[in-house]
């Protein structure tokens, strides 16, 4: 990572050390060098994301809310986030989380320009996502070694992402596009290329099991866990409760799937 400060050492609840989701590897490793390379602990970023299973999508308006929010999510069992670049506070909030809540697997979303790739990485981003597919942004992330999942919603976008070497893709906006039935149909012709998806957009807690039991889905994400309103209200208890429910449902489906 090309950051101005060294990343914190893994803590006891670091996602790379988690044992509560899956004691074994995912069903297959992603054929994506950015997400598939093992880290110092021997786990790849792809594995860590798979074990986390649920990603909290966040919009943070005040830097002072960042660390309490991260801790509230972690207390509920959610240790993976997409912090969106939709507010002036986002990058400073990311840096604060990386310093003070190193257990959180910190991704940055809404990366729309090559300059934002650099800014996100220097603030401590461990991976990046975008709502759409911009080849210049993907190539900038690859040049800097930042694992990146671009957004796709059509076969043409999927083909372009595959040509760029991406195998973990953000399916956005998932539900407005037609959800799993649409993704199944779109991804079918490319199944032999082993791509996997992170659906976001319109997903609710009630849909966690449906999505996570599907073989195309690597993990899911959503803003329902920590809505902007609850963050602005600093209602950390409510966020922890939502995180705990999402974690419980994900744990149930992932453990039952791997027990089969």
Topology, please?
Elements: H1 33-36, H2 45-52, E1 54-58, H3 66-75, E2 80-84, H4 90-100, E3 105-109, H5 114-123, E4 127-129, H6 135-144, E5 148-149, E6 151-152, H7 155-163, E7 168-171, H8 174-177, H9 179-187, E8 196-199, H10 208-212, E9 220-222, H11 228-232, H12 236-259
Parallel strand pairs: 1-2, 1-9, 2-3, 3-4, 4-5, 6-7, 7-8
Helix pairs in contact: 3-12, 5-6
Could you characterize what this model shows?
The protein has 260 residues and is α/β, with parallel strands linked by helices. The protein has a single domain, classed as TIM Barrel, CATH 3.20.20. It is 42% helix and 13% strand. It contains twelve helices and nine strands. The strands form two sheets. It has a six-stranded parallel β-sheet, sandwiched between helices. The protein has a three-stranded parallel β-sheet with strand order 6-7-8. The longest helix is centred in the last third of the chain and has 24 residues, at 236-259. The relative contact order is 0.16. Residues 1-19 have low confidence and may be disordered.
